[in-house]
Amino acid sequence: MAIATINPATGETVKEFASLTDEEITQRLELAQQTFEQYRNTSFAQRAEWLNAAAQGLDDRKTEFGKLMALEMGKPIAAAIAEVEKSAWVCRFYAENADKFLQDLTVETDASHSFIRYQPLGVILAVMPWNFPFWQVFRFAAPALMVGNVGILKHASNVPQCALAIEEIFLQAGFPQGAFQTLLIGSDQVAQIVADDRIKAATLTGSEAAGASLASACGKQIKKTVLELGGSDPFIVLESADLEAAVETAVTARLINNGQSCIAAKRFIVQESIAETFAEKMAAKFAALKVGDPMNPDTNIGPLATPDILNDLDAQVKTCLQQGAKALVGGDRATLPNGNYYLPTVLTDLPAGCPAYQEEFFGPVALLFTVPNLDAAIQLANSTSFGLGASAWTQNAEERDRLINELEAGCVFINGMVKSDVRLPFGGIKRSGYGRELGVDGIREFVNIKTVWIK
Ligand code: NAP
Question: Ligand 1 pocket, 127 CB below 6 A?
Fold first, then answer.
């Protein structure tokens, strides 16, 4: 994939970039390693000062960065600005709490003193996706830099200007040259970087195929990975739920980021007694949304990030329709002259075996399933290979407890939509990946958990 800014609203190639040569990559890795030797000895207070300055830099330029995201991947401008603010939040959170999260932990044993010390590992590679071009990077970088690690970013090829802007933010905040570097490279250059001794671990947020590729490259080198991959999150609505609140939230949960979010609710599993009302209300809300230019503040749904994503989504929808599904609303590309636009779509009557049961739909398409009871809801929810998030709606305490215990997911949200929060761990199980970001668990992924025993 060429490294370029291609406006998804128009198809225009705005700017192209050459990928780094092997020699340039080696120079950057050497700079990262040399920086680490010094940087690991800086104090928490010093790192926190720089990270707070990065947060301020984000806040000061949030409109500019928001426009850059909208230009490169089509996110509606208001959501893009909110993403910059959330990125500042994760910086401030770890600036404030890293010291506490990484304190020595005493454990009583037969030693006179035994404890656990958390130490940095070195240079960490982050391979990141385009869908939250700022947030995904900052949720990796903020804890990594507070630990005393240094970061190398390989961002998605369609968001190079976001990638370069992030490097600039860290430099302007005062971090040393080499503490955080953006490498403009293709995915075919990742394995050679992983094989370099200076890289100590890697994380990837993206598709299953990319995750498997990075993990196997790291496996060959015995290097740790954290993987945040795809999802097809269930959104279960039972008879006792507050239906109005559930429908309102369902629309946001499905359509956030033009429907291109790993933790978007994708499969709506509704108890049959309320299914028709739920479907009608949801379809009406989808039909009322404004599809158009992401730079226009009135736009609800912008273009999909690339023509490939548009084509893949349309093919999935068409397959479901050919196999007997019905579109209550949408079901096709939007008729705008240019750009990767898709109509907000609600599919129902999905026949067993159609792609809706197993595949991730990465766009504004809600998949509606009707079930007779809680058992069937849980069974259907767990029937995919994914296990990222799950949202479930009920006012019944017994149902709630079963949902919490039995849903196969990295997180369960009751009567609310799945969202990431800097204070809580985030990540999946099954083919959605492993490891955690955010919270205390996130900052302890890329550390040497050193056991110390003193007689
Ligand atoms: P993608 O194609 O996997 O790309 C993600 C990143 O991986 C990009 O930087 C890409 O580089 C790189 N990449 C692709 N193939 C690679 C390979 N073989 N080896 C090393 N790196 C490789 O994913 P996407 O289509 O952009 O993103 C959508 C997917 O990400 C969805 O499945 C979504 O659910 C998932 N996602 C998960 C989370 C989470 O937290 N769990 C968050 C957001 C998105 P190029 O751009 O150069 O190809």
Answer: yes
| Residue 9 in contact with ligand 1 by CB distance below 6 A | no
Marked catalytic residue, from 262, 320, 354, 411: 262
pLDDT of res. 337: 87
Structurally, at CATH architecture level, domain 3-229+430-454 sits in 3-Layer(aba) Sandwich (3.40)
pTM of full prediction above 0.85? yes
Beta bridge partners of 453: 114
CATH 3.30.420.10 describes domain 233-414: no
Question: How far apart (Å, rounded) are the C-alpha atoms in residues 228 and 388?
Answer: 9
Closest CA to 437 of 448, 449, 450, 424: 424
Q: Measured in angstroms, how far is the CA atom of residue 297 from the centroid of ligand 1?
A: 28
- For residue 278, the CA-to-ligand 1 centroid distance in Å is 33
Residues in the chain, pLDDT under 70:
none
262 has catalytic annotation: yes
Q: What is the DSSP string of 423-446?
A: TS-B--EETTEES-BSHHHHHTTT
The answer to whether 3-229+430-454 and 233-414 have equal CATH topology is: no
> Known catalytic residue: 354?
no
Query: How far apart are the CA of 155 and the centre of ligand 1, in A?
Result: 9
Q: Are strands 326-329 and 345-348 parallel, antiparallel or unpaired?
A: antiparallel
Q: Is the CB of 183 under 6 A from ligand 1?
A: no
Contact 233 CB / ligand 1 (< 6 Å):
no
Is the CB–ligand 1 distance for residue 228 below 6 Å? yes
User: Mean pLDDT in the chain?
Assistant: 98
pLDDT of residue 369: 98
Rounded CA separation 265/236 (Å):
10
- Contact (CB, 8 A) for 3 and 16: yes
At residue 1, the pLDDT reads 78
The domains of the chain are located at 3-229+430-454, 233-414
| Cα(405) to centroid(ligand 1), Å | 30
Q: Whose CA is nearest to atom 48 of ligand 1?
A: 187
Q: Where are the alpha helices (DSSP H) in 13-126?
A: 22-39, 44-60, 62-73, 77-101
